[in-house]
Automatic annotation (TrEMBL):
This is Plasmid replication, integration and excision activator. It comes from Pseudonocardia hispaniensis. It comes from the Bacteria. The lineage of its organism: Bacteria, Bacillati, Actinomycetota, Actinomycetes, Pseudonocardiales.
Length: 139
């Protein structure tokens, strides 16, 4: 099949009002390879790079409460460093490069619904404004 499971999207498609880092960047655990005494970090199947996760707040004022904070997984050889907060701001605006979305069926809570997994190749401070995504695609 020619359709890939990950769809390339721009930062503005996913976070039109911007996004803010709200957690530390953590390694993603490979649950199949890890054991009780030995933690193995997940490796991206497509790139072969280590997988890291960061929680971000979607700045869309109309986003549902249960969808305000999302996890973005980042494939990178070393732990990504979140951008610094601008002077006088308590939040760290962020943009993601190489952003992709993978739809899947989430059957938790007794009903099936479409959910999305977000992945990126890098994160950085926004190029324009205080958290609003730049107009150019991050492809």
């Amino acid at each position: 099949m020619a359709i890939k499971p990950r769809f390339q999207v721009s930062m503005g498609d996913v976070f039109p009002h911007g996004a803010y880092v709200v957690s530390d960047v953590e390694p993603v655990r490979d649950y199949d390879k890890s054991s009780a005494g030995r933690v193995v970090q997940a490796v991206d199947k497509e790139s072969g790079l280590l997988v890291w996760a960061v929680s971000v707040l979607d700045a869309d004022p109309e986003a549902r409460k249960d969808a305000k904070t999302v996890t973005v997984k980042i494939s990178a050889p070393v732990q990504p460093v979140p951008p610094e907060a601008p002077a006088g701001m308590p939040f760290r605006p962020v943009e993601f490069d190489g952003l992709t979305v993978t739809p899947y069926v989430n059957e938790s809570g007794g009903r099936a619904r479409i959910a999305y997994s977000l992945r990126a190749t890098a994160m950085r401070a926004p190029r324009i404004g205080a958290g609003r995504p730049s107009k150019q695609d991050a492809a």
